[in-house]
Amino acid sequence: MDHKLIIRDIENGKFEKIYFLHGEEPLFMDMITAAIIQHGLEEHERDFNQTIIYGKEADALSVISEAKGYPMMSQRRLVILKEAQDFKGMEDLISYFESPNDQTVLVINHKYKTYDTRKKSMKAVAKNGLVFKSEKIKEYRLPDWIKEHVVSKGYSISGKATMLLAEFLGNDLSRIVNEVDKLEILVEKGTTINEVHIEENIGISKDYNVFELINAVGARNIEKANRIVDYFDHNPKATSINVVISNLFNYYSRLMRIHFLQNKSREGIAAALKVPPFVAGELVTSSKIYHPKKIAANIAVLHEYDLKSKGVGNSSFTHGELMKELIFRLMH
Questions:
Q1: Global confidence as pTM
Q2: Does residue 262 share a domain with residue 186?
Q3: Which of helix, strand or coil describes residue 16?
Q4: pLDDT over 70 for what percent of the chain?
Q5: Which residue in 62, 137, 196, 318 has its CB near the most CB atoms, within 10 A?
């Protein structure tokens, strides 16, 4: 089930007896937990009816004892087991999972990794509550996710601004949400967020970033590429050689695929590579500049400089110097 549907049920007053939230993406678990806290109890009910337990400090007996308690002047009790990945007694909760208290909402936050749902405990939770697996957003879906999140806040966002956030922040969704929250404070509702807003309010340069470097390399714009790499050399916090190499590898891999696609229309490429149409258009242009033999040679060069950046075959060059040399070889 999608986290939005779970939150909608919570907002409508429909609560499960147990929520077992697990997986690699913490944001969706945090959103569900926040909704339960907000809508499960009134403010004046929380002192006596809300208990937060931390996995590293907890034992099964204390969790069961809290969950079996009865609410005081309230419709329900709320018990939250945070950092459950550090809790050693999960399987010892089976007796409670099989017969949960009707007046308690037990929330278990098992973050950063999945729990084995084949275990008897999880079958009991699935029968008497809800098991939610929170998965990382795939890289190709990240721009769409960012766009949907920004729209949900009452804004729209340009394609370039979306790509800047995706390239700079990666799939750290909590960080993306925090940065969009900053924009919400500083930018008027209904505005189309563009690269200028990103630069002025988040600090990602609209001209000197990995996205623009790839565009320069793709167009074989040597002057622009050298200017960006020189900026990276003098501003190490802007990016790293590892990020540059990873993004260039993905870029050339996409170009190679384009050469062997039957449908080479912008729409066909966008669908096959799972990229926005405007990115597909730029890739089509670059595929006419870089032929398969050159792409294969450049991928080999990226592998060589990936090793050099890790100290293999390199004892004296800085990352900035390696980056400049790498870009020169890719475009010549």
A1: 0.73
A2: no
A3: coil
A4: 100
A5: 137
